[in-house]
Amino acid sequence: MSAAFETRTESLTASTGEARDFFALLKPRVMSLVIVTALTGMATAPGSVHPVLGLAALLAIAVGAGASGCLNMWYDADIDALMSRTAKRPIPSGRVLPSEALAFGLTLSVGSVLVLGLVTNALAAAMLAFTIFFYAVVYSMWLKRWTPQNIVIGGAAGAFPPMIGEAVVTGNFGWHSLVLFAIIFLWTPPHFWALALVKSGDYARAGIPMMPNVAGPAATRRQIVLYSLIMAPVAVLPALMGFGGLLYLAVSVSTGLVMIALSIQVWLRSEGPAATKACWSLFGFSILYLFLLFAVLIVENGFGLMWALPKVLG
User: What class does this enzyme belong to in the EC scheme (predicted)?
Assistant: First the structure.
């Protein structure tokens, strides 16, 4: 965070923030994705956990994700103020002071890790602590401002929740959650780079080295296609490994083909309104894609609605 921005905002004696502003600091849309992916890790894990403990663990993981989002908004407030997409967030708009956001984020971080450790086990708590650290420090304070690979490497933070979910149930993690990690990790670049192509002007004003601003739009479009081509087959692995059934196989193959098709459209349509529309189409569908994959796994494993296929791997 720049010293000038911090001095300007801290000159205010008190914030005007309401409860909804502090909730917005938690990035609720990201939290909802974390809840789904962590629950998938729990549902697909070998074994079971008491429903009350599972719910408490899921809440702690969600709060931990929100805490890391809050710390990210605290540190990024100076660049958020320069971008149209983020200028109305609680800190750059002046509704919440940076010091309040920092205290809020740190309190939730410590509290969520302690609760998860108390209701489950040390490994799950340690992994949640590492995830918060990775997103708030490694990604926000280092990767985001220094390398065009920020989204690629930083995507690991968003991919850890399934591993935490499995650790909640088993006290360990294995191939199930590692495959789920890989799906999210490979999904992140095409999802965010589609947005970055549209918002490259915002990122340029803020001095963020996103891939389109460093390698150029053409190279970014090629990499979006490449990541989609790798991701789609990886997303089929749960069905081949026996923790995804016939429904999952159908959904993963069909939606994976759509992701590839939309990525190719982004590659082919490189100028004008058609290019913008292609990027928004990919960005919007990619959110639905990931939710569908993980929701089907939850339904199949959590509700006993699995039409199992012969196990090919694992």
Answer: transferase
